[in-house]
Amino acid sequence: MSEAEATSAPRSMWRFARPEDDEQPSLREVNATIAVPHSGIWLRRLFAFVGPGYMVSVGYMDPGNWATDLAGGAQFGYTLLFIIMLSNLMAILLQALAARLGIATGRDLAQACRAYYPRPVNFMLWVACELAIIACDLAEVIGTAIALQLLFGIPLIGGAIITALDAFLLLLLMNKGFRFLEAFIIALLIIIFGCFAIQIFAAAPPVGSILHAMFVPSSEIVTNPAMLYIAIGIIGATVMPHNLYLHSSIVDAIKWATTDSTIALILALFVNASILIVSAVAFHGTGHHDVAEIGQAFELLSPLLGLGIASILFAVALLASGLNSTVTATLAGQIVMEGFLRLRIPQWARRLLTRGIAIIPVVVVTALYGEKGTGQLLVFSQVILSMQLPFAVVPLVQFVSDKRKMGNFAISRAVAVLAWVVAALILVLNFKLLYDTVVGLG
Fold this sequence. Notes:
442 residues, mainly alpha, single chain, 20 helices
């Protein structure tokens, strides 16, 4: 399918009929503000569509990933690399489906849900997605506050409060245009990538062990409750439910959007795998299996890796990750609110509201339990994210599989089967986690 097919007269039967319809694209202030060429060499056309995929990939390497990857590497070595690989493959498939829905119908996932489901179901889906965004924001507050503490000595509570100011950073970026916003995000991604490339070089991990762990799963992942908890946290931290809403709103053409997001998510795979590998080499391999907090990792990285700047690079990458995630979570929140509720509020107000809700538990937990409590809260937030995934994945797969809605853009039977298998896997893992939690409490 060519990009011309995707951007010309739509063949989807579910597309908006008229611009003046009650349904209008979310983020109208930036929608369709970037001109895209319909001719020229393929590289020029690809660059025109580059951006949304990298914005989406930010959610796949946010501070929540750091906590789960660090804990997984320190406790279990390279074993959970398979889960990181699996999560990324799932993410590539689901983000491609989200892009397809947005391009074929002109609706983002939230608008599609509102057009199809009854009001009570829509309300439940909206609540689930807002919880996911708050959980994600919780991770960003903790990650950014820890980075500020490690780099500048700012107390955790003070750092958490400072993160509320990012609402003004977002407002500044949005006022300069969507391309400027994309450039800012890509620049921070380059910083993150560079920091971990240096750390991987210093760690010099065994390539054979990494490849085996990445492609050959261990049965212990399911049978060991502690490992399963971290594994589900990794899935929750990697496959972000609100990213499916975001991607379905900011894309332009199926072929190039899929290529863009796939390349960007491969970058996210490198970053996530790097965090776990560095943790496995530095901590698991030296007997420091109890390292679970980012602060502990910061203190131990340089001496254990024998690289003086390793800890600083780690903290700089964490700060860049927190700043980046702030932008995309806010955009996703705006899309969800507009799509489900048809409610538009200023982005700075939306940002302050979400961030305010996220700051409260961070401040309370930090005051009561200190840094150890925030580390546990960070991992727990990612498990909450995973629990929200089915509420986004199931409607998405249902819509893109339906020829009555998607017309020629409906996915093939083979892809539909694969997508439903992914949805079922997420559900099974979540039920297993719930069962283990209930039995453990009992």
